[in-house]
Amino acid sequence: MIRTALRPKWLALLGLVLVVVVGFGWLGLWQLDVAQHAKQQEVLDQIERTPEAPVDEVLPPQTSITGHHVGRSVRATGRYDAAHQVLVVDRRLGDRLGAWVLTPLVVDSTGARLAVVRGFVDAGVPAPPAPSGTVTVHGSLQPQEGPPEKFVPQEPGRVQTVDLASGVNRWGGDIYNAFVFASSEEPPATGASAKVAPVPPPAVRSEGVNWRNAAYAVQWWIFAGFVVYIWWRAVRDEHEIRLAAGGGTPGPSAADSSASTDGAGGHVGSTVAGATGVDHPANSSDTTPSTPAGGSSR
């Protein structure tokens, strides 16, 4: 079958098949990318359609955050715990290097602390004081970052990540297992407290896919496999047809077998004659004495 497949017409057709397979494979990858982006857009649209709600209704204190909560618009009213404000270092805002100003907000309705990223300051700039009095914070809910991958000792009031587990040790009491990127405050911050740049929340990422587009991707890959199968089946069919028509390697014929047998017999006869000095005929009928016609043997 390999010899059949190596014939020029099948090699040319194989080249065309490979082009088609590559094209179908690319279309499958494109549909998979569309499936991921479509799911991402579904999540963003759902977040935009969901109205802002009190943080207590979306995520009560001591409750684990899930993907359903990420990016939700929430509001919380309380007082900033300025004594526990920290800078989250090594952050960027565009091309600026600096830190996030992270301040816990003691929520009036629960007494629990909600970590709030109030804004961004450039590197080397001290954290501006938190507003005093009661404020209402509007922002986007985000999961904690956890401990840093590589710990680097920091000065007091500076941390590497938004790690709420370590925040519990510093703050005490109940906390919300998420933090908020503040988009606005009521009343607006004034004076030194206003000297922070708003930090836009990161884009919400979805781990899922749009199953309809994912199914289209699988279909393209099935088509690619089917094209290869059709080529292989056509080569196999021609190979079988050639075998049936005698295109395969022929075995020994009957004439060749007979000639081989006669040659062996003659060789044996010659050998016997040479050994005895008598020429023995090859056929037994040749040993019968001939009798003249019409006469008798005496």
UniProtKB/TrEMBL annotation:
UniProt keyword Cell membrane, yes or no: yes
Subcellular location as annotated: Cell membrane; Membrane
Entry keyword Ribosomal protein: no
Low complexity bias locations: 251-262
Pfam families: SURF1 (PF02104)
Bilayer topology term: Multi-pass membrane protein
Residue ranges of the TM segments: 12-32, 214-232
PROSITE patterns for the chain: SURF1 (PS50895)
Cellular-component GO terms for this entry: plasma membrane
UniProt KW keywords: Cell membrane, Membrane, Transmembrane, Transmembrane helix
Sequence ranges of Polar residues compositional bias: 133-143, 282-298
Disordered as annotated region, ranges: 131-150, 247-298
Family as reported in the entry's similarity comment: Belongs to the SURF1 family.
Stated name of the protein: SURF1-like protein
Species of origin: Mobilicoccus pelagius NBRC 104925
Lineage per the UniProt record: Bacteria, Bacillati, Actinomycetota, Actinomycetes, Micrococcales
